[in-house]
Each structure stands twice: as structure tokens, then as C-alpha cells.
Design brief:
With about 575 residues, the chain is of the alpha+beta class. The chain has three domains: about 45-65 and about 110-235 and about 400-450, Bira Bifunctional Protein, Domain 2 (BirA Bifunctional Protein, domain 2, 2-Layer Sandwich), CATH 3.30.930; about 250-380, YbaK/aminoacyl-tRNA synthetase-associated domain (YbaK protein, Alpha-Beta Complex), CATH 3.90.960.10; about 465-565, 3-Layer(aba) Sandwich (Rossmann fold). It is built from 14 helices and 31 strands. The strands form eight sheets. Strands 3, 7, 8, 9, 10, 11, 12, 21 and 24 form a nine-stranded mixed beta sheet that branches. The chain has a five-stranded mixed beta sheet with strand order 16-14-15-17-20. Strands 28-27-29-30-31 form a five-stranded mixed beta sheet, sandwiched between helices. The longest helix has 21 residues, at about 165-185. The radius of gyration is 29 Å and the shape is globular. The relative contact order is 0.14.
Length: about 575
């Protein structure tokens, strides 16, 4: 491609609303253009990089024995109601009515459709296993689109689905997809960290995310540098500090005028926060829930929502708490009735806690489970954080930000049972297919690649996914010798199978070099009047500061060597 014919212009300054490096650089490099909030066009340079990622994804999925197909983005609402996910997706689900007043959705994902396809196509265990995938445009009405391509309302995604006869088959398919994902990210030159994850609105049980570590990431990742355990903070388990065991002491009321916070209570009574139990109130699908957790910990709302199997979870309002007859700031589960009570298992790690006395300006010392209170549910609902003990080896965990670029799930029979995707086993018994689900956001992966690979000058593309492998800067292109030398290099590179961008514009060397650094192709060749008499071309890797002069006659070998670095 000749730069003079390229659609899309580079910019010196980023858009004022660009809140991430990838958004800034992809826009400045003429690779994306925003249409509206969360809606972007991929311009030719961006589309080329996107297609290279897409090609790697497709090659690895095919190599893993998957079948590619294409499913409708427009779907009847009734199949989402049948699966129970119309409510689970809530406002993120785009809905519309056709001219016959039938309700439709514009799909954010395709579990329902693929399950119905298998219901129609699979009759016997001999038809399984199957792994089916597509690369398709998805739609989600994100409440807060951000980060350019990181969180958008319309995006292209690779989603795959496995169908097996039993759990062993699912495990085989799951491991096969896990390896395919590792191959994809490795080939793209992107070191992704696999972490334990929450399944969210997709449903199912075990799941793992693939994260690219980046300061602009939306997710907190806890990982152990000692044993390798890694998990999204939404899912992360950790070892909770065990307190010294004490003999159970009698409940004792203590006056605490105006003390409503854990920190204030600990300071007032001269005790550590670990000796207190915090009360937090939530509304789960309109029902008040009283949550107790050790005072030094915070509630993980994703764990809580999953425990309650709630669709809508939020902090309860002061009015809702007051209507239940509870004194916020001085509450405990002791003697409480008529309210669902739940506690983090940290209440089992100590004894003689300080809790609210259920009346203003008073607390109780020496509260103990189960002598004084018994929650309806006790489970892990605590949020892990940097320094929390690894659940495998107890070493302190590190915390980093990450961008999710892939997610794999073990769905089990969540969809196949509801939608009737059954098969006859070898004994003629009808059984639901065991499912898995595997997604990669291709556009998000493009943005994440930039978040991980850039400097103050622009993008530094990994060679496998760069829009062009070689960027030729022809200085003084109107000089006949430069024109001939640059065009000759351009044709030789194309003939050898390289993707090449030739900057043939009537611009200054500074503009050309700045644009080359901004666009970020792996190798830059400079053809200039100064070096032509010596039969030399200047070569430079985008990720290195120094350049070198190479012979025109053998420059193809040098390009191959530089691309392999």
C-alpha cells in the first residue's frame, strides 16, 4: 500500500475524551474513528491488524477440530425467556419489535441459538463431541462504554461452544480450547495470564479468563508469584487470618455514643478491626439481606450475588434498613428475625467479637457464633486484595490491573436442559448434552495489544498482528533516484511475501518518521538521497532505538532477521 492512497489520517493530538492509551493511539494513528458513544469504525490500518488477529484465531480454532458457522444476530426474545436470561442480562439486552409486533433481541451472545441448532442436528451420542464456533458482531447496551475498543456497544467476537456426552468429554474439550487460546495469544505476541473467573450472566460453573496486564485494565487480578495461582478479584479465594483462640466470654454491652464506623469503633475500644464484625445491608431482587463480615474485610458483591442467585443486587437505602426496624451503625444479627441473614466465613476465624447492640449508641462485646447468632447462610463472600494469603501456598498475593481478552466456561447442562438439546446414549436413554462456551473479543484484543505495546512515540505492534510488517520512509520521494530505489524495494518486498507500506507522500522527514513511529510497524526502512550512492538502506526495529545501514542487494535477509527479533 502507498501512503498517498491510504484512507485515514494521522493526528498530532488525541481526542479530548480518549481515556486510555489504546484509544488515544489507535485514533491518532488513523486506525479507528468514533461514530457515537461505544460505536467505532475500523479504518484500513486498524482493519488489517484486526484481520490478522482474526486469522490467527480462525487457524487455531480450526486446528483444534472446531467447525465454523454463522448464526443470526437478530433473535426472537422468546428463546431468551425460555433460557431465563432475558431478565439476567437486563438493560444490556437490546430489544425491538418487528412490523408484526413480535419481540426480538439483537444478540449479545449465542448460547440459545447454538443450543437450538444442536437440538435439531444431534440425535445420538455418535454425533458427539462437537465444537462449533463463529466470528460475529455482538451488541450490548453498555451503561458506561469506555476505553475506545475496550468496552463498546457493538463488537466482533469469536464465540465457540462444545457439546459432549459426559463430564470427561467436557474436560477434554475444555482443555483443548484452553490450549488453543494459549496458542492464539502466543502467536499474537501477547502474554496473557489465565486466571480463575466468575461466570456472570453466562451461567455455568468453572470458568477462566485470559488477561493482558495493563494499568488501564478494568479488572483487578490477584496472583501468586510463588505458586502461580491467579484469579479475578471477583472470584479470588484467599487465606483469612486466623485469630488467637480465646475462651468464650459473656456478652457485655458497652456505650458507644455516635460510633458508627468500624475504624471509629476499633479506635474507641482500643481493639484491632479483626475483633469486630461489620454489618452491611443489601437489596437482592427487592429483598433486604443482612450481611455480616469481619471488620477488616470488605464484601465481594459478585460472590454475594452468586450466593443469593440474585439478578439485581445493590446496597440497601437508609430508608429500607429503617423500615426493617434495624439501627444502621449499631446493628448485629443477634436476636434478629424476619430478615435474611448471611455471614462471611471469617466469623469462624476468631471469637469474642464486638458487634452492634441493635439499639442506638451501643455495642456488644464477646459475640460468638453459634452461641449468640446463627446466620441463614455462611460462606466466602470476602474480597481479596493485595497481600492476601494465596489459597494454595499462603504466600502474599500481588495485585495488578488486567484487560479481559478471552473467557472460557464449563456450562454443563444449564442451556441444554432448558432448551431440550438431548441425545440418545448407547443404552437408548435421552440425556442433555454437556456444554462449554469459549469467547475472545477480537476488537478488545486489538486494543489490549496497544495497551501492552507502546511508548511515548506511538504503537509498537507485535510482528504477527501489525497492519504492515515493513514501513518504507522514502525521503524526498520526488527525487528520481529515491523514487526508483524506494519503488524497487517496495516491489521486492511484496514479491517476497511481505506486507509493506510505502510512504510516498510529499512530507518532511520529520513528519514521515513521526507517523512511522505512531503507526508502529515492526521494521522501518529509510530510503534517502544520502545513502543511495553507497547502495545502502537504513533499517530500524520499532522497538529499538538504533538503526543500521544494510546493502540494498541483500536487504531482504536483513528484514527477515529484524522481524524475527
Amino acid at each position: 500500500m502507498r501512503f498517498s492512497q491510504l484512507f485515514g489520517k494521522t493526528l498530532r493530538e488525541p481526542p479530548s475524551d480518549a481515556d486510555t492509551i489504546s484509544h488515544q493511539l489507535l485514533t491518532r494513528a488513523g486506525m479507528v474513528q468514533q461514530l457515537s458513544t461505544g460505536l467505532y469504525s475500523l479504518l484500513p490500518l486498524g482493519w488489517r491488524a484486526f484481520r490478522k488477529i482474526e486469522g490467527i484465531v480462525r487457524e487455531e480454532m480450526d486446528a483444534a477440530g472446531s467447525n465454523e458457522l454463522l448464526m443470526p444476530a437478530l433473535q426472537p426474545l422468546e428463546i431468551w425467556e425460555e433460557s431465563g436470561r432475558a431478565q439476567a442480562f437486563g438493560a444490556a439486552l437490546y430489544r425491538l419489535r418487528d412490523r408484526r409486533d413480535r419481540e426480538l433481541v439483537i444478540a449479545p451472545t449465542h448460547e440459545e441459538v447454538i443450543t437450538l441448532l444442536v437440538r435439531q442436528q444431534v440425535q445420538s451420542y455418535r454425533d458427539l463431541p462437537q465444537i462449533l464456533y463463529q466470528i460475529q458482531t455482538k451488541f450490548r447496551d453498555e451503561p458506561r462504554p469506555r476505553g475506545g475498543l475496550v468496552r463498546v456497544r457493538e463488537f466482533i467476537m469469536k464465540d465457540a461452544y462444545s457439546f459432549d456426552v459426559d463430564e470427561d468429554g467436557l474436560e477434554t474439550s475444555y482443555r483443548k480450547m484452553m490450549q488453543a487460546y494459549k496458542n492464539i495469544f502466543s502467536r499474537c505476541g501477547l502474554p496473557a495470564l489465565m486466571v480463575e473467573a466468575d461466570s456472570g450472566a453466562i451461567g455455568g460453573k468453572d470458568s477462566h479468563e485470559f488477561m493482558l496486564l495493563a494499568e488501564s485494565g478494568e479488572d483487578d487480578i490477584l496472583h501468586c508469584l510463588n505458586c502461580g495461582y491467579a484469579a479475578n478479584a471477583e472470584k479470588a479465594r484467599f487465606v483469612k487470618e486466623k485469630l488467637p483462640q480465646e475462651g468464650l466470654m459473656s456478652l457485655e454491652e458497652v456505650s458507644t455514643p455516635g460510633i458508627k464506623t468500624i475504624q471509629g469503633l476499633a479506635n474507641f475500644l482500643n481493639i484491632p478491626e479483626t475483633k469486630t464484625i461489620k454489618a452491611v445491608f443489601y437489596s437482592a431482587d427487592g429483598k433486604l439481606v443482612f450481611v455480616s463480615i469481619r471488620g477488616d474485610l470488605e464484601v465481594n458483591e459478585v460472590k454475594l450475588k452468586n450466593t443469593l442467585k440474585a439478578t439485581d443486587l445493590r446496597l440497601a437505602t437508609d430508608e429500607e434498613v429503617k423500615e426493617a426496624g434495624i439501627h444502621a451503625g449499631f446493628a448485629s444479627q443477634i436476636g434478629l428475625t424476619g430478615v435474611l441473614t448471611l455471614a462471611d466465613d471469617s466469623i469462624l476465624t476468631g471469637s469474642n467479637f464486638v458487634v452492634g447492640a441493635n439499639k442506638p449508641d451501643a455495642h456488644l462485646r464477646n459475640a460468638n457464633y453459634p452461641r449468640d447468632f446463627e446466620p441463614d447462610i455462611i460462606t466466602d463472600i470476602a474480597l481479596a486484595r493485595q497481600g492476601s494469603g494465596c489459597p494454595h501456598c499462603s504466600e502474599p498475593m500481588a495485585s495488578d490491573r488486567g484487560i479481559e481478552v478471552g473467557h472460557i466456561f464449563k456450562l454443563g447442562v444449564v442451556f441444554s436442559e432448558k432448551l431440550g438439546a438431548n441425545f440418545l446414549d448407547e443404552n437408548g436413554v435421552s440425556r442433555p448434552a454437556i456444554m462449554g462456551c469459549y469467547g475472545i473479543g477480537v476488537g478488545r484484543l486489538l486494543a489490549a495489544a496497544v495497551e501492552q505495546n507502546h511508548d511515548e512515540k506511538g504503537i509498537i505492534w507485535p510482528a504477527a498482528i501489525a497492519p504492515y510488517q515493513v514501513h518504507i520512509c522514502a525521503l524526498n520521494y520526488d527525487n528520481s533516484e529515491v523514487t526508483q530505489a524506494a519503488d524497487d524495494a517496495y516491489e521486492r518486498l511484496k514479491g517476497a511475501g511481505f506486507d509493506v507500506l510505502l510512504d510516498d507522500r510529499a512530507e518532511s522527514p520529520g513528519v514521515k518518521f513521526n507517523d512511522a513511529d505512531l503507526i508502529g510497524c515492526p521494521v522501518r526502512l529509510t530510503v534517502s538521497p544520502r545513502n543511495i550512492p553507497q547502495n545502502k538502506i537504513e533499517i530500524k526495529s520499532r522497538n529499538e532505538k538504533t538503526s543500521a545501514l544494510i546493502d540494498v542487494d541483500t536487504f531482504l535477509e536483513s528484514v527477515r532477521e529484524f522481524l524475527a527479533r
